[in-house]
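## retry 2 of 3
previous attempt timed out at serialization; input unchanged, resubmitting
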Amino acid sequence: MKRLFLLLTAAVGFVLCSFAQSMIVHESTNETTVYNVSAVDSVTFSDTSLLPEGNVSSTTVEVNGRWCSLGTSITWYNDNVSFAGGAFTRGYQDRVMDKLHFQKLFNRGVNAGTLSSAYDAIVRADYYTIEHGINDWGHCVKVGSFEDDYIGQKDNTTFAYQYRRIIDRIFKVNKGAKVVLCTPRKAYGFGDYLPAHWYDPMVASDGTKIYLREYADLIRQIAEYEGFPVADWFAECGGQNDLSMQSIDVALHPNDVGYQRMANVLIQALQKVIVP
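## retry succeeded, writing output
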């Protein structure tokens, strides 16, 4: 008699008894299939994520935990859609919640905030996402050095130093926190706030040229060091040719298309740390 094991997944539930002569498979589509156990030579399960690839399913996974979403106005807008005057309908967090339903969402986005503003926005939660970099670029905040400023904590005026401060604060609030880092979405324009192209530099008062990709590169480096997943919005959510079609104001704040693309990328990253 072949022994069968119990496997639970988000999409398919199996209840198998090692002494049964048949097994009944109940699928999420409400289809039921009966198999003769004695005729089963082997059982193979494919690797699956919490959600089907592409996030096209209507499946919602209930997540046992609270989500603290730190960020800029791009994050803040989720709870302040009316300020956009109908330019879009929902932010990225509500779109994520359609698929990954956290027990509670704390939207801690700070309108016009740089990374340093996230420190006081942190509340106790189980999952944290950090969306920062675009306003630091707009304000010519020095990126800093991973070794000197994130690890060594030397220059407290740098983006790297502030990131270390935020990460330390999160784990002080909850030592078991799950963290996902988000690279900044590409952006340009918005009056004279940003350059004419996302790949152009901002020029600091001392003449230093600062590129948006430097913030993204640093965030990836921090994520690798800490073992955090990355929602790589910089790489996957628009470029010079199509960014304006995903934005409400030249190419800074997303529209519905832009927010949905961001949500899709973030869902994939969150799945890597969520405990079913």
